Amino acid sequence: MTRAWQNWAGNQRSTPTEIVRPASTNELVAAVRNGATRNGGVRVVGSGHSFTDLGVTEGTLISLTEHRRVLRVERVPGGANVTVEAGMPLWLLNRSLAALGLALPNLGDIDRQTVAGAISTGTHGTGAELGALPTFVVGFDLVTADGSVLSASETEEPAVFRCGRVALGALGVLCSVTLRCVDAFRLNVLEKPERVEEMMRNFDEEVAANRHFEFYWVPHTGWALTKRNNEVGSGAADPVRPRWKTFTDDLLLANLAFGAVCRVGKWRPSLVPRLSKALPSTGVVRYSDRSDRVFTSPRWVRFVEMEYRVPRRLTTDALQAVMEVVRSKELMVSFPVEVRVSAADDIPLSMGYGAASGWVAVHMYKGVEYRPYFEAVEAALYALAGDEARPHWGKLHTLTAAELKRRYPEWDSFQSVRRRLDPEGVFTSPAIERVLGPV
What we know:
- By secondary structure, the protein is of the alpha+beta class.
- It folds into three domains: 5-63, Uridine Diphospho-n-acetylenolpyruvylglucosamine Reductase, domain 2; 70-184, Uridine Diphospho-n-acetylenolpyruvylglucosamine Reductase, domain 3; 186-391, FAD-linked oxidases, C-terminal domain (Vanillyl-alcohol Oxidase, Chain A, domain 3), CATH 3.40.462.10.
- Helices cover 31% and strands 25% of the residues.
- The chain has 14 helices and 19 strands.
- The chain has helices spanning 25-36, 90-99, 115-120, 158-164, 196-201, 203-209, 243-267, 272-276, 291-295, 315-328, 371-385, 401-405, 411-421, 430-436, and strands at 5-6, 13-14, 18-20, 42-45, 60-63, 70-76, 79-85, 102-103, 137-143, 149-153, 173-183, 186-195, 212-217, 223-231, 285-290, 303-311, 337-342, 357-365, 390-391.
- The strands form four sheets. Strands 15-12-14-13-17-18-16-19 form an eight-stranded antiparallel β-sheet. Strands 6, 7, 8, 9, 10 and 11 form a six-stranded antiparallel β-sheet that branches.
- It is globular and about 55 Å long.
C-alpha cells in the first residue's frame, strides 16, 4: 500500500512505494534486501526533523521509529560506552542515560531527532572544546546494500568508521550506535538580554569563559538573548528550576507566546519589527538542572531553518552579514538568529572538519516564504568565507555536489567508501545525487 510521509516542518513530502518499520536487526536486513530489488532504492528516516529532502523517495522508505532499545552498557573511567539501537530518539536516550547516572557531553537544543539522524547529519550543540554529536560515536553497526551487517570502529573497518559517522544515509542503514557517555552532570544557567553590539565585541572572551555559550540576535532590535551554561563543580549550584517553572517558561512563554507573535507576523508582516521588541523583555534568569534538561527545550512552533558553519574567527562577521541582509532587503524576520561554536573534528563530511567552527542559524516560521532570506544569507556567507562556509547537512541550502566537493578536503575518501559499500546506488536518491553526486 502506498503511504504518504512528511517531515516535522511539513516542507518535505513523498509517497514511497512502501514504508517499512523494522523492530529488529533481522527485519531491518530484510527490508534493505527487499528494497534493493525495487525501483527507487532505499532511504531511511527517523523523526523527520531534517528540513531537507534527504528522506524523500519513490522507493522503499525505512522508518527507524521501532528500533529504539538500549543494548549494552560498558562502564569505563569517567562514564560508559552505551550501545543503542539507531532509531532511539534523543529524548528517550537522555532519559535512559540519566537513569544510569550518565549523560552525553553536549547536545543541541532539540531532542526529537533519532540517534541515527542526529549523527548522520552532524547535529551539534555549542562549546569551544566540544565537537558535534558524531564525535561521541565510538562504533556502529551498519546494514549495507547487500543486506550484510558491518561493524565499524577505530580498530575494525576504520575507513568506514571515519566516514560513516556523518554519511547522510548514503553508506547504509545504521542499525546500532555506541556512544561515549560521561558521568551525569548538572549545569548552572545564566540567561539574560544584552546589547548585540556588546556581545559581538566580547564574543571571544565569552566563548573562552564559558563551557557552553550561545546567543540569539533578535532581528529589528539591538538586543541579543544570551545563554551561559557551566558545569556545577565544587562551588555552589544555583537553585533548581521547579518543574512548574519549566512548564511556564518553556511551554507557555517560549512556545505559545512566541507562536502568537509568529502568527500575527505571518498575517501582517509589517508588524514584525514592533512585535520583535517584546522578545528581549525578560530579565536575568539563573537556575541549575540536569544537563540534558538545560541543553534542550520543546519546540511547539514549527519552522524551517538554514544553518552555516564558518571558521570560528569569522563568527561575528557572519552575524553582521546576516544583519546587513535583513536591513538592506527590508526583510520581516520574526525568528531570532542563533549563534554557536564548536571544536574541530576529523570526520570527512563533518561541517566541523579540520578547524574550529562558528555557526549562524536563520529560521522562518512555517508557511512564510523563506527563500529570499535564506538565499541572500547564503550568498553573503559565501562572500565572507568562500569555500570555508559549509551548510548544515540536515538544514536547507542550495549547494550541489560540485560546490560541496570544494569544501571538504576528504571528499574523495568518502566517495571511495561509498562506492565500496553501495556500488549499485541502492541508497541514492535525487537528493543524495544532488549533494553527493552519483556513486
